Amino acid sequence: MTVYSTENIINCRDLGGYACKGGVTAPGRAIRCGIPKDPTENDIRILKEAGVKTVIDLRGVQEARNMPSLFADGSIFDYHHVTLLEANPALTSLDLPVWRMYMISLEEHGEGYAKALRIIMNLDEPFLFHCFLGKDRTGLLSAILLSCAGVSREDILRNYECSFDLFKPFVEREIAMKTGLIWEQDISRLMSDRENLGRALDCVDEKYGGISGYLGYIGFNDEEIDKIGKKLL
């Protein structure tokens, strides 16, 4: 796993370095992150040097409207906005456990997952996908991609639990400065405890027979699932 030294792109790392059915996932193929502020010129330079041509924004419709992406006009990268869950203080159900929010994302936004994965399936160059902090929606899509590549459940959970440590300094700074950018009052909900993702994946196993079963449910065949997985090689 490569962690990129970006400034306003937080929790920025690739999905490389994990044992999989094709050997080991390659560095720099799929880059996951959070983008809570506009990327700096240095951030953009780093992404371009990494070979990124496509950005997939996984935030909600209202989020993207309130904080438009710097990439939205397509002048820097090929930009796609694909909603996997609306996360803002007016609409987010803060009384639900995090794992349950993950299941809502998967079950209510299957169309979004299918769209994002079909975009990825047809790419031949490195790509970046992000939400706000790069933990939840980005974490779910990362879990799906890694699973398609044949990465173990243990490594998928390890990849997920890195997030909080990587964006914690940013969150603490924003809260201390009272910028209002971090609206979540319960900081424990920002933590990337493996139980959050683990329980959701257990539910996927029980309901769909695993990630491949879920992907079949949203319209993918075995050949397409294999093709998605090979994008990480």
Structure description:
Helix content is 45%, strand content 12%. The longest helix is centred in the last third of the chain and has 15 residues. By secondary structure, it is α/β, with parallel strands linked by helices. Helix 5 packs antiparallel against helix 6. The model has no long low-confidence stretch (mean pLDDT 95).
Question: What features would you highlight for this structure?
Answer:
233 residues, globular, 10 helices, 45% helix
Describe, in short, the structure shown:
The chain is 45% helix and 12% strand. A 5-stranded mixed sheet has the order 1-4-7-5-6. A two-stranded antiparallel sheet has the order 2-3.
Name the beta content range.
Answer: 5-15%
Give the count of structural domains: 1
> Uncertain segments of ≥5 residues (pLDDT<50)?
none
Morphology call: globular
Q: Find the CATH superfamily.
A: Protein tyrosine phosphatase superfamily
User: What is the CATH class name?
Assistant: Alpha Beta
Q: Report the biggest beta sheet as strand number plus sense, adding barrel if it closes.
A: 5 strands, mixed
Strand ordering within the main sheet:
1-4-7-5-6
Span between N and C termini?
13 Å
Q: How are helices and strands ordered from N to C?
A: EEEEHEHEHHEHHHHHH
According to CATH, what is the topology?
Protein-Tyrosine Phosphatase, Chain A
Count up the helices: 10
Query: Percent range for helical residues?
Result: 40-55%
In total, how many beta strands?
7
What is the CA-based Rg, rounded?
Answer: 16 Å
Mean pLDDT, to the nearest integer, reads 95
Instruction: Supply the CATH architecture.
Output: Alpha-Beta Complex
* Broad structural category: alpha/beta
